[in-house]
Structures are given as structure tokens and as C-alpha cells.
Design goal:
single chain, two-stranded antiparallel ribbon
């Protein structure tokens, strides 16, 4: 069984899922920051959140490459 997500992690997961379903490709860090309404100008907060989702096995991505986020657990919350 997968580790449970916190509410912020779940919100990020849903934002990624929605973006991919709507546009057909994954969002950038800045797009995710904007979608979630974060006030930061750096990507470090979003990078840390994505690393946690990756460690927990919900997403995968290639570091330093834009638009490479993939959902690994697409139907986990249905």
C-alpha cells in the first residue's frame, strides 16, 4: 500500500492530474506554483513537494527537464 498523502501533497497531485488531462502534457514548476497560488518566486518549494510525491511513488520526472512529470498512480483516488 502507498503512503498516504497530506492535504497539500494531494492538492499538488490533483493539480498535476488535472493539468495533464486538460492539456495533454505535464505542467512546469512555475505553472504548478501559479495553479496552487504559492507566492514564492523560486522553484525550491515546488521541487521539494515534487520530490516527496516521487519518493512516495505517485509521480516520476526527470530532474532539470521541463514537462517530464508522469503520474504513476493515475486511478489511485477514484
Amino acid at each position: 500500500m502507498k503512503e498516504l498523502l497530506t492535504s497539500k501533497q494531494y492538492e499538488l497531485y490533483l493539480a498535476i492530474k488535472y493539468f495533464i488531462e486538460k492539456y495533454g502534457y505535464s505542467p512546469t514548476l512555475r505553472e504548478l506554483t501559479y495553479i496552487l497560488g504559492l507566492k514564492t518566486k523560486t522553484n525550491s518549494t515546488m521541487c521539494n513537494r515534487l520530490k516527496i510525491l516521487k519518493r512516495k511513488g505517485f509521480i516520476d520526472y526527470k530532474e532539470n527537464k521541463p514537462r517530464t512529470i508522469r503520474l504513476l498512480v493515475d486511478n489511485y483516488f477514484k
